[in-house]
């Protein structure tokens, strides 16, 4: 698959992010993806995550293309430039959080996270197959009917070990530790597996090893790698969920879901006036 994720978004599609948004709060899905309302603010955590992702993609691209990683100083310079661009051109005013109260603190936090990762990247002896790998497939109902929608997504990092086994990696920045139960049930890795199977990277119904590559936003940042596996049962369940979400969207079922997610929602004013 050579198309960029941006190009794939031009087709009628669902992504894991859209599916997760609908499951978390279908009214937010309506504001964001149906009405296309501009967000009221941009989360600083979102900016941090995107710049760290871009920096890690550059790090592993260097290994894939040149056989060695870019120097830490060069990669940190790339990170600083990326952060400066993100902060200068946000879609909406930046809302800073507890981790970083202003732009300087956000920049410094990201540097600490990236330095911690470069000190302990792991994945020794593994081949880099792809970074930010864009994938697409027709969304098929559980009874085999091909819908008009495509499932799209981009795998952060795809590695191959010395025995030829693939490992799908998703990069995360997080303050709190992830539980193994949450990781084993996570839908994003199931979506990755389904897309990799359809695009020929993994045999149909073959289990796939996956990893959450987490950089913890602590006073002293640390890197944690959480391994899990996705089987045919996981991809079948994800496909049923994706189709159920599509049915809800087509039936125009959009309702508010009040909870923890409301505090950082970029559509609070729209929700209050709904």
From TrEMBL:
Listed Pfam families: PDDEXK_1
Ranges for domain PD-(D/E)XK endonuclease-like: 13-272
Organism of provenance: Pelovirga terrestris
Superkingdom in the source lineage: Bacteria
Name the record gives this protein: PD-(D/E)XK nuclease family protein
Cross-referenced InterPro entries: PDDEXK-like_dom_sf, PDDEXK_AddAB-type
């Amino acid at each position: 698959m050579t198309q960029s994720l941006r190009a794939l978004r031009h087709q009628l599609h669902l992504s894991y992010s859209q599916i997760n948004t609908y499951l978390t709060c279908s009214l937010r899905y309506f504001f964001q993806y149906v009405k296309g309302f501009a967000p009221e603010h941009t989360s600083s955590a979102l900016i941090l995550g995107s710049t760290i992702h871009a920096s890690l993609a550059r790090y592993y691209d260097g290994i894939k293309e040149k056989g060695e990683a870019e120097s830490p100083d060069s990669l940190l310079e790339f990170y600083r430039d990326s952060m400066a661009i993100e902060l200068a051109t946000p879609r909406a005013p930046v809302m800073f959080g507890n981790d970083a109260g202003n732009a300087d603190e956000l920049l410094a936090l990201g540097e600490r996270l990236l330095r911690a990762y470069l000190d302990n990247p792991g994945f020794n002896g593994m081949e880099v197959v792809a970074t930010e790998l864009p994938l697409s497939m027709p969304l098929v109902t559980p009874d085999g009917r091909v819908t008009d929608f495509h499932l799209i997504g981009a795998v952060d990092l795809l590695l191959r070990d010395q025995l030829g086994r693939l490992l799908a990696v998703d990069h995360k920045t997080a303050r709190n530790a992830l539980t193994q139960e949450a990781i084993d049930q996570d839908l994003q890795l199931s979506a990755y597996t389904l897309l990799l199977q359809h695009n020929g990277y993994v045999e149909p119904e073959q289990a796939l090893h996956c990893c959450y590559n987490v950089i913890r936003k602590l006073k002293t940042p640390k890197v944690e790698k959480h391994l899990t596996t996705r089987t045919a049962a996981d991809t079948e369940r994800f496909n049923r969920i994706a189709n159920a979400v599509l049915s809800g969207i087509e039936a125009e079922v959009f309702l508010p879901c009040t909870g923890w997610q409301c505090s950082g929602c970029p559509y609070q004013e729209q929700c209050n006036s709904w």
